[in-house]
Design brief:
Low-confidence stretches: 1-23
CATH superfamily of the largest domain: Protoporphyrinogen oxidase, mitochondrial, domain 2
Number of strands: 21
Number of domains: 2
Radius of gyration: 25 Å
CATH topology of the largest domain: Polyamine Oxidase, Chain A, domain 2
Helix content: 25-40%
Distance between the termini: 52 Å
Amino acid sequence: MNQYLFVLLSFVHVLADPDFAKLDGAPPSKIAVVGAGIGGTATAHFLRQHFGPEVRIDVFERGSVGGRLATVTVNHQDYESGGSIIHSLNLHMQDFVQQLGLKYRKSVAGKTAVFNGDEFILEETDWYLLDLFRLWWRYGISFIRLQMWVEEIMEKFMRIYKYQAHGYAFSSVEELLHSLGGSGFINMTRRSLSESLLELGVSQRFIDEVIAPIMRVNYGQNISIPAFVGAVSLAGAQANLWAVEGGNKLVCSGLLKLAKANLIRSPVATITLRSTGDYQQYELTYDSQNEKSSELYDIVVVATPLQQNINSGISFQGFEPQLSEIAGSYHQTVASIIHGYLNCSYFGFPDPKLFPFSSILTTDTPGLFFNSAASVCPVNITSGFRRKQPQEAGVYKVFSPKPLEKSELKTLFKSYYSVQVTDWLAYPHYGSSQGLPPVVLHENLYFLNGMEWAGSAMEMSSVAAKNIALLAYHRWNRQLEMIDQKELMHKVKTEL
């Protein structure tokens, strides 16, 4: 009788002590994700997949859902002002689009040229073989060496999808990269792109006239960026690119709904560590209807940059030692959406009807005030849509390192109706000597944006989101055999 009484009292004690169940492997009750960009919303989606339907997931966003995926409106049409293109090998993004029932945007053909401030030095034609011949004639086999290098890196990087499909996670960006490409990938985060390409046998002329313009349009930076970042950028400059009909930001709002997450439209002010015995939770304070509110969470994922010049507004309290500020800064890139008439004479075409290019990239020439200029299509393209000809008023996206002055606008455009400026801190300011930020800030406190210091793209954020969801799940359930495993290619093959 006493034995049964002891068991009964023990059971009552378990019910009365909520921390006991959590320490004993029960799922978390509440998870917070700070930031509703592609990284944050994908994290919410993957957390829901792994932790199941019972856990409450709150997503905090002080701005618009989508973050650096955003649109602006010109003449009742929306245009991408942020992340615009997605590569065909981006398997997470493709999966999101399929799950959400979204559509691929119709592609509209257009030719690209490279401008050095005086003239076009490289021009795309309607004939692929002619373009190849011109590349060979001007640069030798540099473009073939580059293509093989990028394909080799992408082939290794694609291993991440197999690893994640089998549930493996990594506690740092370095561990993830090492599992994919060994010390070679790690070294690529520490060496400049130009140094790596020269060693590969790519000519300086090809680097200056082809690679540099691609880095300028994609990251607003030069060829001194780390080689791995450059490889990600070059993969995104190839063919087989796509976008989402209606705007890429629809993926973010769709993932929030798919995750059944609660969107809290407030900035997070503080994240405070609260300890009860051996059990730790995080108290998030935020503004709610002009009042301070707070909630306790078992797991927190910070999916917004924490570098000093971003000014996230988040302070960390109660940590010993105090969490240090994450090193580095974000690079200013200005996107101007301009409705007007392109000044084709500036580019050497007095007759706009003869101007054949829809996209203009630029070399790293002193005094050249813009990185790129392109005729852009709206996010909704009807079956009868055609791209505006240069002699017509069109909508252009111009990337520049700072807002365009009136004299610069008049240089690029004969006249214009409107200018809408988005001043982005869009990408990390890459330096080949800086390290990669941590993924784990504290027990059950994670930082998503460290991944974009290896390479910034929508898919990189999605890969980071999947990794953090798996990492949080395995650490919560003490499944350490699924974290930072070595020789994963062999393990995955033997599991099949």
